[in-house]
Amino acid sequence: MTVSWLDLPASEVDEAARLLLGWQLSANGVTVRLTEVEAYSGLGEDPASHAHRGMTARNEVMFGPAGMLYVYQIYGMHFCANIVCGEEGRAAAVLLRAGSVVSGLDLARSRRRASRRDSDLAAGPAKLMQVLALDRTANGTSVIDGTGPLTVSPPLATDFSVSAGPRVGVTSAHDVPWRFWISDDPSVSAYRRHTPRKVS
DNA sequence: ACAGTGATACAT
DNA sequence: TGTATCACTGTC
Length: 200
Description:
The chain is of the alpha+beta class. Helices cover about 10% and strands about 25% of the residues. The longest helix is centred in the N-terminal third of the chain and has 8 residues. The N and C termini lie far apart (about 55 Å).
């Protein structure tokens, strides 16, 4: 399988993110078409990146080779996944933000009882992980060699148009339009401004 | 607009 | 050790 985004340098992680749109993600009986992503550049370059301040126990997978899954837990209850991109050691990654379910719909619905519409089943980074039934045990697994729980396959069509805007929920680097989504797709997660911090 | 939830990172 | 923060979601 030729993987266009896999061999791009970390300096082009935004292009890798764009190229990932439309790819299909399969895990645990459900397949989704990726409709929304965010790029995070690596060590010392991107204040919004988990790798910005260097390697920790949490983010060490980001410093490994491209094609690995970096899974982290947030707010004590949700999991989000990135695909590591760029050269080893650079810690660039693409956050998988949303998708539309293309197979395993019944399974997806049973895993996301709160979802009112099918377009909301994977309309967010943690929702995506829920429909694919992935958690921290997927951290550090490969998405390209078939050894991990998540596998990827190329887009069926590439005639969609792509929109770009600021990343969701990040306070810093609002100027970089590194969130990409398939234009007009109903499964794209609702944009929420970063929750204003309580002042004293 | 806010609560739920607990791991993580960093300061002490 | 303590504590502030958090690349979120559901319900209000």
